[in-house]
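Assemble and predict.
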Amino acid sequence: MKNSQPSFRFARAITLVFALLPVIFFVGIVLMLLWTSVPAVKDVGFNVLFSTKFSNVFSGIYTPGEYGLMPALWGTILVTIVALLFAIPISLSLAIIASDFSFGGIGRLIEAALAIFSGIPPIIYGLLSVFVVNMFIRPKFGGEGLTEEAIRALPGLPEYNAGMLPRELSTLLGAIFLCLLIIPFISPLMLDALRNVPASLKEASLGLGATKWYTLRRISLPAALTGLIAAISLGSLKTIGDVVIVAWTIGYVKRGLPVPVVDIFERSAPLTSTGAGLLTGLSPGADVKGGLDYSVAFFAGLLLMVMAFGILGLSNQVQKILQKRFEQ
Amino acid sequence: MTAETTQTKIAESNPTLEREQIGTRRTRWLDLISPSLVLLFGLGAVVLGALSLISNKFEAYPLAFLGGTCLILQILFLDTYRRWSRFDLKAAALSLLAFTFLFILQLLPEYVTGFQINAVIHRSIFSSFFLLVCGTASLSIAVYYLWGATPRAEDYSHYPLLLVPAGLAIGLYLVLITQLIGRGLPQISWEVISQPFYNYSWPIKITIGNGWPMWSAEQRMQIGMRNHILGTMLLMALTTVIAFPIGAGAGVYLSEYSAGRLGNIVRTTITSLRAMSLFILGLTALSVSRFAADFSWAGLVRGTYFNGFHTVVSSGGSYLTAAVILSLLVIPVIARATEEGCRSLPIELREGSYALGATEETTLRRVVLPWALPNIVTAWLISCAEVAGSVAVLIFIAGRGQYGVGIFRQVTSLAYLVFDIWFGEPSFKGLMGGYQFSAGILLLLTTTGLGLAAMVSKRWLEKRYRGE
């Protein structure tokens, strides 16, 4: 009877159309990525694509046909891990202050500040990176105040050249700004997770005489763990997908894996900025080059999408397992 | 029997309570000396650690602070034994740690290199790390003894662990934003905001010589960001027009009619769209504009621009293309918020509407949507801020937008201007070079204003439509 009302059917039909549009767009994007990266797989081949040798026009020494995306993949992983290492403790402590320990008003203040900071677009962080370079990177890691001869005389440096020291760009700088980008994003999610812990659990613990800290550590954090992991995975999705900050702070010039591989003071350009460098060299208004460079950039996009869905799936699995364990 | 004697009796029978009784007894001023000294040293160490993160000038002080912390913790250790007759192993371990740090800091040369790492690391980064660790830990110990070593004091003693990292992070944000305002604010003037940018050569005198027309041209240039500001507004408006109905409709569908398998597919897709990285959206925009290159209507998708003489089709994207791709970015936000708003409607209201004889369509229009309105409006404002700040979609398709604004003109925005000044062509960079921080401030004002408007409007609309 309900469905026989014509107006009701109209509302349903029109919302169905609107709901199907995103599905069509999504399928279109996936097909576009697959279709455009066919030449990369066909003409370059997986062997070359997953090797460690990469060069583009901006690399100094340019060898055509070196399309190894392994350094870029490692760059994405490295910068994400370092950014999360900084971001998780800070955003967790911010969320805990805002949810459980208010310190008389500070918690509310932090919540408002996070809401305002979360509106800062990534490009602003790129702009701010100049200040961190001046305040932190140059004096601490660049050997500021030393002459070139003095730096050359220091023991243990790899073959020194002026562009190699992290005077301006490094993975560390990128990680700092990705961390600043995701703190206001994941901290409210963590706050929600901590607030959604049933009050009965907390009150039972407090009623049995446990202190607030003990309750937090033994009751709230384990109960909120699934929410925390969801927040972290969403944050890591944001870090792996960001273009502007990494282009600005790490750059797009890449020759191979850093030596040693965990060297965060070198520039390990992630997939996004490598792809952007392949397409335009990040010079605005420049015509996009066609051919294999174009296709390989789209293959980088495809890798990124696979990584994103991998992270989503993994975090869902972990959440399911934890949920089961928590319920037992 | 008085209360005091009862307590003494319980204390005699219960040794754990006895310790608490001693803890809450009146403290003499002598007992407060060593913990307050530890507090002072800890605070000093944390402040010094934070300061030496941003400056190399504090090389002389870390040794003094670490040594002082080491010494004062040993005094606290003895004092604790005198007062409670027990050994505080935490204080002893921390003192040992401070001494180790002191020792390591003494051994380090001023510039540390090695392990093939591409950096000349200054010693002060180690000292600031050591100071932060020792300072936070000694703050914990000091708070514990200042509050009388009760279980509640133990609770309080963990607070520095929360407050120090949070304070450092918030301080970093504030320092950076203050520096941005300090650099950009002096250059903002009404002329820069209200004038468009142009830079082209214009013929001023045409003569016929040798049978050919010849002209002398003058370079006309003007600095300004009017078209970038207007472009940001147009981009927000277009994206709203495209994304708002689709997002709200999809959200209503998800909450009202999404019982079956199709609903699951739509929900999964919307989550996945959100997980799609910005880079992929940029690639999509690029491939759309390249796809249109061969058609006669290419100008509508690729965008046109006026180069001083005539309007030409450029290789890039128009505002319309950018808005379509950007709406993919914000549709999930609006849809999710709409769905949440519709689902939070109390069942009584819906059933009351049905009981009064309203059809489902009327209920949707008159009951469900007004209830969800605060959520929808908030999501819309937030997504407008996201559109204003998004560069990744424009990165491959923008470029010559500074010459004019229109739906089919080449796209640009304030956020893109910041990017363009940094990475752009040298002539543009040379003219606009000083204004990137000003553009950044305008962008920051836009997004922050939209965020504040979202907060205020949510509160106001909830009062209006939900009676909260």
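Chain A touches chain B through 109 residues (CB under 8 Å).
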